[in-house]
Write a structure and sequence with these properties.
Elements (H helix, E strand, L loop, with lengths): L2 H23 L8 E5 L2 H7 L2 E2 H4 L13 H11 L4 E4 L7 H11 L1
Parallel strand pairs: 1-2, 1-3
Length: 106
């Protein structure tokens, strides 16, 4: 990992910690109000976070974006308490993916 990657990972961790402190100071008792999403599996491995597709149940190659009842409940449970979304390498995320993210969160 390059120095730039290490610095970025450090910054993301600091942001997560700060947002968690804010949540705890406001009596929000959840594990973490922050969900960090990444575009690639390599980045997910390096900063211990989750890929956009996996976190939001967005299919990689299918055109059908609908969620069945069970998957929708799992997604809602996973996102329960998430107040902040951090997208790593947002400049690499295409507009259509940002639209899909928005649709999943609405």
């Amino acid at each position: 990992m390059s120095t730039m990657g290490i610095e970025k990972s450090y910054l993301i961790n600091m942001i997560q910690d700060h947002l968690l402190k804010i949540a705890r100071n406001n009596n929000i008792n959840i594990q973490s109000p922050v969900l960090v999403l990444v575009l690639t599996g390599v980045t997910a491995f390096n900063i211990c976070d989750v890929m956009i597709h996996l976190a939001l149940s967005i299919p990689i190659s299918e055109n059908n974006l609908d969620l069945n009842r069970d998957r929708l409940k799992m997604l809602q449970k996973k996102l329960n308490g998430v107040k902040y979304l951090v997208i790593d390498e947002k400049s690499m995320v295409k507009r259509c993916m940002l639209t899909l993210i928005d649709l999943r969160l609405c």
